[in-house]
Write a structure and sequence with these properties.
The structure is a single chain. The chain contains 27 helices and five strands. Helix 7 runs antiparallel to helix 8, helix 10 packs antiparallel against helix 11 and helix 15 packs antiparallel against helix 16. 71% of the residues lie in helices and 2% in strands. A hairpin with a 6-residue loop joins strand 4 and strand 5. Strands 3-4-5 form a three-stranded antiparallel beta sheet. Strands 1-2 form a two-stranded antiparallel sheet.
Length: 796
């Protein structure tokens, strides 16, 4: 019966053991002692794995570093465990997460389940490992430890429930379709539309809850009645005259009603949409008897909504740039796309195809950028000089065009205001009045469309990258549109302050020639309202009645020159500009038209479907994949510029322009800001002193010093983190060299071991051959010449 041979370790394991015996001789005695106790090579291998630097410095779970809290809790429960189990070495690498103890407790199982959730592995693997942990035995924790465990579980389940409740993602399928066919650059634009729409809905809800509904539901205190013998009732008389004037010019038929709806005039002036609807009264609850100061609420809620928008924009901009910084670097970009871009939750064929196309477009964008960089490096000195000359001339042309646009808008507004006042003073309201009222809005909208197209094409002469083209075009066009709004408001305020603002005497509600501007706040709200509707109508008309028929004709005839000239490309700057302009009008008009954010949210909702139709049915994808604008961070930054422009206009009107006597919650005051000043002055002395302290130098100077110290502190931390990142990058390179060295050393030892085994095998075979020859010769001598069996050297 053949004796069963003892299994020998593999050549790789022999080489690895010999290598560590050579480089770690001090641990040899400990290894031999452990071998005698644990039973051979398994414990020796465990000790070798335990002394590796990666096992000493990092506590990971299947390659995923645990959080600080999880690491602390896990280490605190494993202090009694000083050695690794031999079974861990023999287990599969996927099961290295199992705890060092034979039976873990509930806390360790919970921590490991949370670590499994963070692993970048398929969902099937996660479920398999989670089920394996849940079906295994575990010790029950007691006391405060059990209380903390239940608290963690409850909080985790609560967060999951909240995520499920609020996880409804609007336009999910449409966004996935756009990402797959047009890339992440176009996708970020549609996500930007969705974020802006949510922001407008939040502002609309705030204005509706704290301004509109209280004015509709709460009772008014006894208002002042017009008394021609009492000068204190002049605002009531002016409001009565204004209301009668508006009613006399309302409801002149269906056509007149429709035109009033488009312009915000007539019956629309006395709806909650505009500033003139609200009165300077104190509301009182029907049952509670609590007072509600409507003018104070109007100004505080408006300011709070603007601050809310500012916080929303700043937070999203900061997060976007943080992600851009973390993903910066050519090497990491390719690695992120190749190794981390796939979504393991995809469960259908169409989603898989969209994701494949998205990854393809992403890689295409990176390659195009690399191609541009290679071309830039190969430019000659003459090419560089010629390029700088072209860019200088282009910037001069753009600047001249912007100045001309501002001058045209200024004179159009002056012309419109003059003729509106002339037409309004007459008894018959002709069609010319409607034309004059819409003239500034039409001029601004047409100029924005034409000049934007010009700027989008002129930037191609400057030979920038796709990212710089987008940024430069956006900056120029946004400056054009914001400047057009600013010039529009400036020209109005210049004319109003020069002709209509002054010291009114007696029962004068407005100066001569300013009847049309008796409620100038409503006029600004109407202007923003008309600009919104006009801009949306122009965009929808161009796409549905010009670009779409051209697309049908091009697809039908298949003429190359028609496709080259008339086929539209989805120009991201132009489409982003439409949303930025709409949002700038919303921010400007929220103070003069409280419900305007609702209209802006509705326009954003319609914009999404209109732009999706334009993107998928009319336009072809951008020729350059804008992978560098993966998020909407830059779009939010552009919106931030328009926000400050609108905020400047609002602050100027609140602090410098006298409110109208005829309408609004601030009539009779010198400025709108006086409402807050009067409220503060009516407070108790200690509270008034406390509030005034925030506006004094005693508070401002320490605040500035603290902010400067905080900026210095965080800049120092950022510099230290940047230095540490560089050190870690170098350490990664050294780790790669260490791995190459270890692999080369192991290969040498493996080849040496194989050579030794081959030599030993040859020596054994030779010795056995010699023994066989020796035995054959001895047998031949004993049997003699007549032996029947002759063993020759050849037979052996």
């Amino acid at each position: 019966m053949a004796r069963r041979s003892r299994p020998q370790p593999s050549t790789w394991e022999e080489a690895r053991g010999e290598f560590y015996q050579e480089h770690f001789p001090s641990s040899q005695a400990g290894l031999e002692a452990d071998d005698s106790l644990s039973g051979g090579a398994s414990s020796s291998q465990a000790q070798l794995l335990h002394i590796l630097p990666s096992r000493q410095l990092l506590h990971t779970v299947d390659g995923v570093t645990m959080s600080r809290g999880q690491m602390t809790r896990t280490l605190g429960k494993r202090r009694s465990t000083l050695t690794l189990r031999p079974s861990q070495v023999q287990a599969d690498a996927d099961d290295e997460m199992l705890p060092d103890q034979d039976i873990p407790d509930e806390q360790q199982v919970w921590d490991q389940i949370q670590a499994i959730k963070a692993m970048p592995i398929p969902m099937e693997k996660k479920r398999e490992r989670k089920n394996k942990l849940l079906t295994s035995s575990a010790f029950r924790v007691q006391g405060m430890q059990r209380f903390h465990l239940h608290r963690q579980k409850f909080w985790s389940h609560f967060k999951d429930a909240m995520v499920d409740i609020f996880a409804f993602e609007l336009w999910h399928d449409s966004l996935r379709l756009i990402e797959g066919n047009f890339g992440t650059g176009v996708l970020s634009y549609f996500r930007y539309i969705k974020k802006v729409m949510y922001m407008n809905i939040a502002v609309f809800a705030a204005m509706l809850s704290f301004v509109v509904l209280p004015n509709l539901l709460l009772k008014r205190t006894e208002p002042l009645h017009c008394d021609l013998t009492d000068n204190s009732t002049v605002t009531a008389c002016c409001n009565q005259n204004y209301t009668e004037y508006v009613h006399n010019n309302s409801w002149g038929g269906v056509t007149k009603g429709f035109m009033d709806f488009l312009q915000g005039t007539g019956y629309m002036e006395l709806t909650p949409l505009f500033y003139g609807y609200y009165e300077n009264v104190v509301l009182i609850g029907a049952t509670s008897g609590l007072y509600y100061n409507l003018p104070l609420a109007y100004v505080l809620v408006s300011i709070s909504c603007l601050l809310l928008c500012l916080a929303f924009v700043v937070i999203h901009t900061a997060h976007g740039f943080q992600d851009a910084i973390l993903s910066r670097g050519k090497f990491y970009q390719y690695c992120n796309v190749i190794f981390s871009a796939w979504d393991f939750c995809i469960d259908n064929v169409s989603a898989r195809e969209y994701k494949q196309m998205a990854v393809y477009n992403e890689l295409k964008g990176y390659l195009e950028t690399d191609q541009y960089e290679a071309e830039r490096r190969n430019r000659s000195q003459m090419d560089v000089i010629q390029l700088y000359v072209v860019r200088t001339v282009t910037n001069i042309i753009v600047t001249v065009i912007l100045i001309i646009c501002g001058v045209i808008i200024f004179y159009v507004v002056q012309y419109s205001l003059l003729h509106v006042e002339m037409e309004a003073s007459g008894e018959n309201r002709s069609t010319l009045l409607t034309i004059y009222q819409y003239l500034p809005a039409m001029t601004v909208s047409v100029m924005n469309i034409v000049v934007t197209l010009f700027m989008y094409h002129i930037v191609t002469l400057e030979r920038y990258t796709a990212q710089v083209n987008v940024i430069l075009t956006l900056v120029r066009t946004v400056f054009l549109r914001v400047a057009s709004i600013a010039v529009l408001m400036y020209s109005f305020f210049v004319k109003y302050k020069a002709q209509c603002e002054g010291q009114l005497t007696g029962f004068e509600c407005f100066l001569p020639g300013c009847r049309a501007n008796a409620c100038w706040e409503t006029i600004i709200g109407q202007t923003c309202y008309k600009l919104m509707l006009t801009d949306f109508a122009c965009i929808a008309g161009l796409n549905l009645f010009v670009y779409f028929p051209l697309k049908v004709v091009i697809d039908h005839f298949q003429v190359p020159w028609m496709r080259k000239i008339f086929l539209q490309e989805f120009e991201i700057p132009r489409h982003v500009l439409d949303v930025v302009y709409n949002q700038a009008l919303c921010w400007l008009g929220v103070f003069y038209s409280p419900l305007l954010p609702g209209i802006a949210a509705l326009i954003c909702f319609l914009y999404f479907y209109l732009k999706r139709f334009t993107c998928t049915r009319i336009c072809e994808p951008p020729k350059l994949s804008l992978h560098t604008i993966r998020s909407s961070a830059f779009y939010m930054l552009v919106s931030l510029f328009s926000f400050f422009a609108a905020l400047t206009i609002i602050i100027f009107s609140m602090a410098e322009v006298q409110p109208s006597r005829s309408c609004g919650p601030f009539r009779g005051l010198h400025t709108m800001w006086m409402e807050i000043q009067d409220t503060v002055n009516a407070l108790p002395g200690w509270l008034r002193t406390f509030i005034h302290f925030f506006g004094s130098a005693g508070f401002a100077v320490p605040l500035v010093v603290a902010l400067l110290l905080a900026m210095y502190y965080y800049s120092a931390i950022a510099a230290a983190n940047k230095h540490m990142i560089e050190v870690l990058k170098e350490q990664l390179v050294l780790e790669g060299h260490d791995k190459q060295f270890l692999l080369s050393k192991l290969n040498e030892l493996t080849s040496l071991t194989r050579h030794r085994l081959t030599e030993r095998r040859r020596n054994v075979i030779g010795e056995r051959l010699m023994e066989g020859v020796h035995f054959a010769e001895m047998g031949a001598r004993s049997s003699g010449a007549g032996s029947e069996t002759v063993v020759t050297h050849q037979e052996l």
